[in-house]
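Dear U.,

Please find below the material for section 3 of the report. The protein was modelled together with pyridoxal-5'-phosphate; I have listed the sequence and SMILES used, followed by the predicted complex structure.
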Amino acid sequence: MTPETVARLRRETPACATLLHFNNAGSSLIPDLVHQTVLDYLEAERRMGGYEAEAALAARLERFYTGFAELLGAEPAEIAWAESATRAWDSVFYGLDWQEGDEVIIHVSDYGSNTLSLLQMQARKGIAVRECPSDGSGQIDVDALDRMIGPRTKLVALSHIPTQGGLVNPGAEVGRVTRDHGVFYLLDACQSLGQVEVDVRAIGCDALSGTGRKFLRGPRGTGVLWVSRAALDRLDPPFIDGHSAFVSGDGFEWEPGAKRFEAFEQNYAGKAGLARAVDYALEIGMAAIAERIAGLAEQLREELASLPGVTVRDQGERKGGIVTFTVEDKPSRGIVAALGAQGINCSLSYARWAPRDFARRHLPEMVRASVHAYNTPAEIGRFVAAVAEL
Ligand SMILES: Cc1ncc(COP(=O)(O)O)c(C=O)c1O
């Protein structure tokens, strides 16, 4: 990324001047023009009325579908609005026809809320949840997955970039295996969208969930679901209303595309804002953003690892922008709070959000520092110096 682009990113993100924000895996700083898009939308609702604003700003709302289609290498009709990544993921998981004895294969890095849905379905229907082992690097072992898939395997569900560290799972290699077996592949791309390039056809997944507020730099309370056209008929959406379906004779029909997963009532201002954030990512270029994030995170890992008593906990052959670490004899909670008091934002990573991984690796609570393209090497220096000071 050119210095001019970095300068632009920082200029258009005024909080960069006062904050050191390394909590992009929680929620990143939104650019001014995304903020303004949300305000403009709300102002239109205030002036015109909600339905009238929706009609007047229809093109901005439509950009949600065409923008995500561009970002993901998909078709607009395969995109659905979602209020969060989890609700997008749920729409697919609870839309599969689960029968007793069906199997779902996950990886130890699975996101905690997704794990809970699996356990709920295990209790409800008696499905089996199986864990694919990791390879030596800590990523999902694709050969083992190939051997594990059997006649009862209904779903492979993978957290592409888990919440608790630098690992980037090999999404496309998993896709090759699931395609060979004809097994449904649901990718949790909550941390990936806006952080790395995500092309759904190259990955070969059947459905994908994501959020607006993290690396895409959209507003909170926004999310997205992508379901491939071919996968639509394999799912029975768990919720229905007059937007997603219509009465037909004595029965009903679903809307033809992925809108069948949406509710009528949506956060329209947030949707317009997220569409703008997607355009921003496209303007800057996902390849450049991904390269910058990975480079900054690598620098952060190296500098942290050189401090006495600091253990960097990240795994994976390929690593992204989330850095997790612990400091000997210093509770991570205290570190996050002490840094926060200095205007340095990072977050705590703990077992609730990745229970399998924390249990398996016997992990204590960790500090999670996650960088974005608007962060700088100088900020990394400041962050590491502040940790050393503690
Ligand atoms: C990997 C992963 N999946 C899913 C989620 C859930 O996203 P949401 O809170 O939007 O439902 C998160 C949130 O941190 C996450 O990191």
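For the text of the report, you could mention the following: The chain has a mean pLDDT of 98.

Regards,
Y.
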